[in-house]
Amino acid sequence: xxxxxxxxxxxxxxxxxxxxxxxxxxxxxxxxxxxxxxxxxxxxxxxxxxxxxxxxxxxxxxxxxxxxxxxxxxxxxxxxxxxxxxxxxxxxxxxxxxxxxxxxxxxxxxxxxxxxxxxxxxxxxxxxxxxxxxxxxxxxxxxxxxxxxxxxxxxxxxxxxxxxxxxxxxxxxxxxxxxxxxxxxxxxxxxxxxxxxxxxxxxxxxxxxxxxxxxxxxxxxx
Length: 222
Known about the structure:
Elements (H helix, E strand, L loop, with lengths): L12 E6 L7 H9 L5 E4 L12 E6 L14 H14 L4 E4 L1 H9 L4 E16 L1 H5 L9 E12 L5 E6 L7 E4 L3 E4 L7 H7 L12 H12 L1
Parallel strand pairs: 1-2, 1-3, 3-4, 4-9
Antiparallel strand pairs: 5-6, 5-7, 7-8, 8-9
């Protein structure tokens, strides 16, 4: 993708794209507020309205139960991918989490598809050599505690750098250029999000060890 010149004097803000009521930005939103960014949350399951790309300073795309390849059921997906691609093209920060990472991968031209098995529960991702050198991930490595909850995966976009893998799925985190990151796993759950998730998780026995929850929360606040 080629970058485009910045327009003159456009008022911009940070934006969160949310896909379902019970999967919000959590710790990511709290950290953004603490840094004075105060992102606007846009619920795409309610409205497909998006601002102009030139009005966006940075973008966070969070998760949800939809499949990127289900554009026949969710017509907004094609427009959302085009929107993400435009933000990346303008070299503005983009963070995609779970479904958001899959949408980012699709926006960058990669294929998203059902994985070989469901990956859900507390676990770890292992940083690659590039992940250990990454300015965001490197200080946390070589192994990061996360919460997994996905059944889809994606090919690594052309030109992207693989940052982390798990034993079940190789493509767990990637960076495109310097400021677009895709995370297949979750680091955003706070207590309220976890409470909301419990009614939607697959019928598996998932305990919530306080030490693991706090470890993930620590990474999410970094």
